[in-house]
Amino acid sequence: MAKVRITAESVYTLDSQPISNGFVEFNDEDGTIMAVGQCDEGEVVSPGALVPGFVNAHCHIELSHLHKKFRKGTGMAGFIDQINELRDWAGRETKIQLTRQWMDKMWEDGVSAMADISNDDSSFEVKKNHPIYTRTFLEVFGSEPHMCEGVMSEVSQLQSVATGVGIDAAPTPHSCYTMSPQLLSASAAKGLESGFLSYHSQESQEEEDLLISGSGAMYENRKRSGMSTPPVTGESSLKYFLDRLAAVKQGPYDEHILLVHNVCLKQSDIDALKKVMKNPFFAICPLSNIFIHNALPPIDLMRENGLDIAIGTDSLSSNDDLDMMKELACLHINFPQVPMQELFTWASLNGARFLGKEAVLGSLTPGKRPGIVRVTGIDAEGFITEESCSKRVI
User: Fold this and answer.
1) Domains of the chain, each with CATH number or no CATH
2) Per-residue model confidence as pLDDT tens digits over 369-379
């Protein structure tokens, strides 16, 4: 066993306060953290910060072939039109090659685990053989009630393929606006059975308008396409989701439920979900939200309510990169009141907790193997900037 000691101006263990002029010692063979602490007086300290490996809490890695192909600022309705037009332009081998390329880049940039969305099996072999741990959410769509049985049969077959490959995967619903009430409930039930569920929630005002008043760009888009729309409830899309969960299982829910985006989250929504969800997590994807409709989630409200926030990159159809540091820089620029310790907790520990992997990942705790990442380009106040970058140490 080879013990290696590395130093940095700041060490964010995430299980205690940051350490100034600190060190991390680890087993060079398997990456197990052995010790952390403050450097001896006179010890040479390397620049930057050391943090545990990141967890990308929301990604669509199989859409990597859509990099740089989408127009920005189209709103959700326009974005959906582009998805429908472009998502199948590439063949399977191209998709596999680009999936591997971008997962390799994420690994080098410091991502140790990922909660990923899949609609087909093109990413499965790459995930199986990759050092990034991935839990795959097999997302389903279907706006017409009569489609429910067929869609659920197809996703069950896809789950069997994933199981055969050896990756963790289970069905999950996409969102209120792409699913019939029946399909939303049926797929949510399968996700709850697995213990993990991911759901695109309150990503845009268009989504809220659809449920609250049956109006807006998304409503018109659905009607123009001849698709059924969800029932007008007069309530938020999140409350509608809670109703569809209750149709298949009464709360409280012990399962790990990830609500993704949360741009239109309000206090009344938080109050409603806290009554029934014991383990809710909230993935934010700031650069994707800006890309599509130039909006950001209500971070101050989320922090005031003590919500467990995690960070995702979303896909390369709605982002120029899959770089967690760029997401962190965006958050710091827009919400400078959030301490770096908290931002790194969102980027690592909370994602690990959602995935149920906090015993191994998420903090620089002796005995864990989270990966170690060096962050450079930190300013004089100790904050990351747009020039900051991350590189995996181990």
Assistant:
1) 54-322 (3.20.20.140)
2) 999 999 999 99
